[in-house]
Amino acid sequence: MSDIIQLLPDSIANQIAAGEVIQRPASVVKELLENAIDAQSKNISVIIKDSGKLLVQVIDDGVGMSETDARMSFERHATSKIKAAEDLFYIKTMGFRGEALASIAAVAQVELKTRQRQDEIGVLIQIEGSQVKKHEPEACPEGTSIAVKNLFYNIPARRNFLKSNPVEMKHIVDEFQRVALAHPEIGFSLYQNDLEVYNLKPGKLSHRIVGIFGKNYQKQLTPCDEETDLLTIKGYLGKPEFAKKTRGEQFFFVNNRFIKSNYLNHAIKVGYEGLIPEDTYPFYVLFIEMDPKHIDVNVHPTKTEVKFDDERTVYGLIRAATKQALGMHNISPSLDFERDTNVQLKMNNYQLLNKDFNTEEDYQNEKKYLRFENIPKEKGSTNWQDLFEGLKDDSVFSENFNKEENSVTFQSAANELSNSEITRTTPSAFQIHQIYIATQIKSGLMLIDQQAAHERIRYERYINALSNQSSASQQSLFPETITLNPADFELVNDLATEIRALGFIFEVFGQNSIVIRGMPADITGTNGKEVFEGLIEQYKFNKSELSLEKRDNMARAMAKQSCIKSGDILSEDEMKSLIDQLFGCENPNYSPNGQLTFFILDLGRIASFFKK
Ligand code: ADP
Ligand code: MG
Q1: Which of 190, 301, 344, 539 is the most exposed place for a label (fewest CB within 10 A)?
Q2: Angle at 484 between CA 480 and CA 486, to 5 degrees
Q3: Residue ID of nearest Cα to ligand 1 atom 1
Q4: Which of 284, 281, 288 minimizes the C-alpha distance to 310?
Q5: Which ligand 1 atom is at minimum distance from the Cα of 101?
Q6: Residues 535, 132: Cα–Cα separation, whole Å
Q7: Cα 577 from Cα 133, distance rounded (Å)
Q8: Ligand in closest contact with the CA of 79
Q9: Tens-place pLDDT, residues 5-32
Q10: Nearest atom, ligand 1, residue 62 CA
Q11: pLDDT digits over 404-421, tens only?
């Protein structure tokens, strides 16, 4: 029998390797930027077209390549950076496997121009699908330019797999920011479709942070410097009062490599304990330097995870450094401890409440008694009132009750009501632990989850607003400017029609900024910026977790942002209004994400508790 084993042609071997190293346009950006840094560049430009699907080009003023090296650079395992296998973290250069350019050239159309200082003329190489198409002398500036066109042009399945432009651009900006933060001594610029997104001058880390995230950050940076036997920590923490609802702006670098670590994030979070609310995220850019021998060597170069041999000590040191930095610089944010403890209490109560039904038997009983037959499934503005039929006038349903949600302001209205308004002899609806609303109905007692119920109400309302393209807005007295990262900015542009349909009035205001001039009329008394940022964040979260249609996602995100929360104090009128609106919904039984909004404990069930 003849032999059947053959070596794969280079072009195929390279494509296979590319599958690992090059996942999307952002991977190309990362590899090219790292090469430019390794080439001792002082200024690096990144040019993106069509979120990198059409073009990723990186131009540097580094050492350049000789003609032979230029050709060699596209061979697999061709590298000038190491001669033997060594630990990733011992290596000072960013790349070392000699795989990137070969991989990129296997899956795109690449044009390289490069010249070394001492050479009079440079070289041009065009290569696509690993085939050299052109190789000739070229008059070009000192340094290197690599243009990567039509990524995955020869692998349609991978090309189709790329995400929408805003998503791919967000990945690119993420990589760009990480590299730019790790090298403040180098100038970087980024262009997308001929628009300048960033132009960062060389300078100190603090300047780089402000250059990337905006002037507001100038005031909020707290230096963090700690030196121990095991490691040194350097960088900046955001002041607690600037913590955001957005998780994005948290950066860890270990020996100047960006890493992701939930474990270390947690250490920082604990360092901020008591200074920021639970659901917010502080800003930080921290650089950890340590002897590479304490870092797990089994780390894949394209992955961003890291393992330390003494994780607990690293955790402890980071937590301590955070506390120290926040304390030392005498930060006294406007603390709201009362609110914090309430949140804590609320959780405990919530757990207690749930515990009551914790045995399987209890649970089954409970299920038996959830009687939805009473509740009309259709939009029941007439029938649901039967629930309350025969009850006194003081009960939830009363004729002159206004069904327009706008007529009741939820935020803190209860606190403004006078005592006489709150105190009634026989309240028809009352709150239980500020989580549930209890009310008497014909068949017994109804319990409503205030948050789930209001989320349902708001959701249906926003769905309507989005399909009618109309919503009431209220002009803001003080227009607020929001600076977004470029990817979010693009997303906001993409969603502009929907955002306006919800009732926001805004316009673009300079690079990556918008100014909000009006808010949906039903959002009163809250910080517009916070709601807007929360909306975008929730939208992105929904998008990554659930595959929702644009409008549905928007309505859900906005409902979640604007609804009454567990813990909010409600006046009786607000409770009544809420119940009224809930049963005016198309689907009152569940919140948009499927949580039960209410259940009924009927008289039979209540009586059964008292029977011997
Ligand atoms: P690696 O970076 O792992 O060595 P690459 O495939 O990314 O592998 O690059 C191969 C080689 O090409 C590098 O080792 C370097 O010698 C050369 N090279 C790549 N990009 C540049 C650049 N921008 N300037 C100078 N030399 C470069
Ligand atoms: Mg490289």
Answers
A1: 344
A2: 150
A3: 98
A4: 288
A5: 6
A6: 49
A7: 72
A8: 1
A9: 777 677 677 676 666 778 899 999 999 9
A10: 24
A11: 333 333 333 333 333 333
Q: How far is the CA of 123 from the centre of ligand 1 (A)?
A: 15
How many angstroms separate the CA atoms of 581 and 571, rounded? 15
Answer yes or no: is the C-beta of 31 below 6 A from any ligand 1 atom: yes
> From CA 119, how far away is CA 139, in angstroms rounded?
10
For the Cβ of 96 lying below 6 angstroms from any atom of ligand 1, the answer is yes
Q: Tell me the C-alpha distance between 531 and 319, whole Å.
A: 30
The whole-angstrom separation of Cα 22 and Cα 30 is: 10
How far is Cα 178 from Cα 87, in angstroms, rounded to an integer? 22
Q: Is 148 in the pocket of ligand 1 (CB under 6 A)?
A: no
Query: Which token pair is 245?
Result: 């609802």
522 lines ligand 1 (CB under 6 A): no
Residue 41 Cβ inside 6 Å of ligand 1? The answer reads no
Smallest CA separation from ligand 1 atom 14, residue:
79
List, as ranges, residues with CB under 5 A of the ion ligand 2. 35, 95, 100
Q: Can you give the three-state secondary structure of 492-554, one letter per residue?
A: HHHCHHHHHHCCCEEEECCCCEEEEEEEECCCCCCCHHHHHHHHHHHHHHHHHHCCCCHHHHH
User: How far from each other are the two terminal CA atoms of the chain, in whole angstroms?
Assistant: 89
Contacts (Cβ under 8 Å, ≥6 apart) of 336: 277
pTM of the complete model = 0.58
In ligand 1, the atom with minimum distance to the C-alpha of 100 is 6
